[in-house]
Amino acid sequence: MKILITAPFLKTRGVLHCIEALLPYLGDTDIINRGKQRSEESLIKTGLKQIWIYLKFIIKIIKNDYDTVLINTSIGYYTVVRDGIFVIIAKLFRKKTILYVHGYRKTVVDHKLLMAGYFLSDKIIVLAEELKEKLKLVGYKKDIYIMYNPVDISIIETEYREKPTDVINLLYLARLEKEKGIIIALEAYKIAKEKDQNIVFNIAGDGTHFEKLKLLSLAKNIKDVNILGFIVGQDKINLLNKSHILIAPTYREGLSIAILEAMTAGLAVVSRPVGGIKDFFQNGKMGYLIESTEPKEFSDGILNSINDLSTVSKYNYNFAGDNFHPGKIAGRLMEIINGYQK
To answer: What domains lie within the chain, and their CATH numbers?
Structure first.
């Protein structure tokens, strides 16, 4: 079986990390990249380049005998058009087409005209029960499956060790954007720091709030904040291995790979009940999911997590190993592709 997979150009996208984790287990695959090639690229320039990418996509389909086209996407105003065209092209060439949805905006799902291309797909994979039900409600009649995201094998295979707690390393690992909750995270840390001076805040990621964070930290005299920028590979593994708690006050999410990676490294998680995380998260056992966006609520979650660290850490490490291994996720994906999985 040969599979053609769409994937983003940008290494900063969680979708690409997911695909790279699965590839060694999927057998004969080809990748076609789409989307922005540079983060600062304009939408118009990206759109013009996308026309050439569609032509390359058609040429690949003509020259290769693909059994399945796997389209990695999200449901947003631009992506439903861009990736809907991929679906239409694949179906014109009578290819089995599976949509793998990594995130969504609720307002877009309701637009049946915008979703028309997506609804031509033979199957849809989602990360959250709420999206599965939403797609059924708006009229998708074919099979919809729920899957976890995989975690990089190098993180999964790291041996569990109890971490020293003389200094508590709080970690933020996401884009530095308002919608990811970075300002809430900084304010929550400030409140928690006033009660426990042993906490240090490490911020890993890039985005539009990079400089603003530095200014806010100085202006509010928030101490022990390390803004590390975007990190990958062994540097990220090292950071995860020394961290104790992940804070992720995101406003919307599919299924955050950062949360899954943090759990795999034995971190307690303080986040919000958005997307797929609430389908499996056990409040108190894994950390805390907080409905509110008030920093005080998140600071309480941080402080409560410190008290539970030893039990939560081992529990999350074991849960992640059982559920987020890329080999297991790839096996389920192949069952879905082959029609064996319900």
So the answer is: 2-150+325-338 (3.40.50.2000), 154-323 (3.40.50.2000)
